[in-house]
Specification:
The protein is of the alpha/beta class. It has two domains: 151 residues, 3-Layer(aba) Sandwich (Rossmann fold), CATH 3.40.50.2300; 133 residues, Response regulator (Rossmann fold, 3-Layer(aba) Sandwich), CATH 3.40.50.2300. Helix content is 46%, strand content 16%. It is elongated and about 65 Å long. It starts with a helix and ends with a helix.
Length: 328
């Protein structure tokens, strides 16, 4: 009987140990919103990560609905439910700091992705330098105009890091062309519909005066194109640029209607998830995404780096078909 009890105790201990070993890592992804295609690509890439598909990671993707308070409530949920790590793309560079603080206070590592937050408490960050893309897109517009004429700027949500940094890049390019006048500059909140309405109003207010459109994302640039077409104007007579490389923008680039710069949502998402797993497992993890092999200039470096910078890729006639082929 004594031997039987010892055997049963040993079996129970082994089962318990096995259950702990097989327990899934619980990770939450908190993007600022899922309305637009870019963040949908970002979220889908999370779900396609090898560790999620194998069942090693239990991933929950929240919808921040473009609201800092909603994101703070989502953090409260993840803290209460004891998530092992959080991936954060904040809507507001300042308001997001309190959410990060709450998670770190609970011992949960927070990995930034895509948009930044004013906090030194992030464990790591995977994203792209928005100042560079803001300069690149504005320069394509200004080069097409020969540094002369009038432009309008469609900005992202005021207070988000991408809006702040892309505007900085826009202004840097504009400073190189002092003869170019900015007729209008307003937020359209990353929205195609809002941008279309703004552009319709601007075309009415400034008839035959607008020569270029600097859209801080593709959705807004596409909204401007729709407004131009609706007004019976030739969109190809305007210099129009956007950022992200979403599917409709790729088609518009191919049609000669605009320029765009690819922001690699997949690399940002899967890179952040690899780092989240790494820190959730206290460093006992090797990255599983192929993005580290894709971007040789962004080495994994044993997960030690604070910032991982995913480069921008201008969409061109040479690569647009290949990029379109990656979209379902």
């Amino acid at each position: 009987m004594r031997k039987l009890m010892i055997a049963l105790a040993s079996a129970t201990a082994l089962l318990a140990s096995s259950a702990v070993a097989q327990e899934k890592i619980k990770i939450g992804a908190a993007p600022y919103g899922l309305n637009a295609e870019f963040m949908q690509i970002w979220a889908a890439a999370m779900q396609e990560h090898p560790a999620v598909k194998s069942g090693e990671v239990e991933l929950t993707v929240f919808d921040g609905r473009y609201d800092a308070l909603v994101q703070q409530d989502q953090f409260k949920t993840m803290v209460t439910q004891k998530y092992n790590a959080i991936i954060f793309a904040p809507i507001d560079v300042d308001a997001g700091a309190a959410a990060v603080q709450s998670a770190v206070d609970a011992g949960i590592p927070v990995i930034g992705s895509n948009t930044r937050v004013n906090s030194d408490l992030l464990t790591s960050y995977v994203g792209s330098d928005d100042t560079i893309s803001g300069y690149m897109e504005a320069k394509t517009v200004l080069d097409k105009l020969g540094c002369k004429g009038n432009v309008v700027i469609l900005e992202g949500p005021v207070g988000q890091s991408a809006q702040i940094s892309r505007l900085e890049g826009n202004k840097k390019a504009l400073a190189e062309c002092p003869d170019v006048k900015v007729l209008e500059d307003q937020t359209a909140n990353w929205s195609r519909a809002e941008a279309q309405t703004l552009m319709e109003n601007w075309l009415t207010a400034h008839p035959k005066q607008i020569n270029g459109v600097i859209g801080q994302n593709d959705e807004m640039a596409l909204g401007a194109i729709e407004a131009i077409k609706a007004a019976g104007l030739d969109e190809k007579s305007f210099a129009i640029a956007g950022i992200d490389g979403i599917t409709d923008a790729l088609r518009a680039v191919k049609a000669g209607e605009m320029t765009s710069i690819l922001q690699d949502a997949r690399a940002q998402a899967q890179g952040a998830l690899d780092l989240a797993i790494f820190h959730a497992k206290k460093g006992n993890y090797k990255p599983q995404s192929d993005i580290w092999a894709t971007y040789k200039d962004m080495p994994w470096n044993d997960g030690k780096d604070k910032n991982y910078n995913v480069p921008w890729t201008p969409v061109t006639a040479d690569n647009v078909d290949k990029l379109l082929a990656t979209r379902k």
